[in-house]
Design a protein that fits this description.
40% helix; Rossmann fold; alpha/beta; 5-stranded parallel β-sheet; 197 residues
């Protein structure tokens, strides 16, 4: 089907984190097709960015301001998982997953929102695990936290004309999901319904 607005993002500058592969690469490609100038972090040949380092996050706005003057969109896509269940997950694993999945988007919004004019948009990429639950405790709780962060950010940035949305994709075949054990993508409610331990 032909897109009636093939270049509706022409002239817009959009940052996509975690764009080396999987969802992030697909998002960057789709935005580019729409005419956006995409700053794809972690992608080969593009800007390297440690989503958890304040210094990396602080340097990016200065580069964007110098090169483009402003920025119109941020897709907080970067994320990690950890498969440990309730009885096995360690506090340090929880902290590491939450640092990438929650603190990373927080830093992105803190540092890039000042460059965004009215009409700009932030999209935080979560998971359907934020709507129910999945057995990997660290990832599930981080996605619920990102959901709350997105709501709070929408309240703060909305008066400036900046939209903040969170998307909850279901199962998508990527390298991350490929590492799940058989049935690892099922929700807790599905597992219980099927009599799984």
């Amino acid at each position: 089907m032909n897109d009636p607005h093939p270049e509706r993002l022409l002239g817009k500058v959009v940052v996509v984190t975690g764009a080396a592969r999987g969802q992030g690469a697909a998002e960057a490609e789709a935005l580019t097709r729409e005419g956006a100038r995409v700053i794809a972090t972690e992608a080969p040949g593009c800007r390297r960015l440690d989503d958890t380092r304040q210094q990396d996050r602080a340097e990016l706005p200065a580069e964007l301001r110098e090169s483009y003057g402003h920025e119109h969109g941020l897709v907080n896509n970067a994320g990690i998982t950890w498969r440990a269940r309730l009885g096995d997950v360690r506090p340090e694993d929880m902290a590491r997953v939450h640092t990438v999945n929650v603190t990373g988007p927080l830093l992105g919004m803190q540092h890039l929102a000042p460059l965004m004019p009215p009409g700009s948009s932030v999209v935080n990429v979560g998971s359907s695990a934020a709507l129910t639950a999945r057995c990997p405790v660290a990832c599930t709780t981080s996605k619920w936290a990102l959901r709350g962060l997105s709501k709070a950010a929408a309240l703060e940035l909305g008066p400036r004309g900046i939209r903040v949305n969170k998307v909850h994709p279901g199962y998508i075949e990527t390298e991350m999901t490929a590492s799940a054990a058989h049935g690892g993508v099922k929700s807790v409610s599905d597992a219980l319904r099927e009599g799984a331990p």
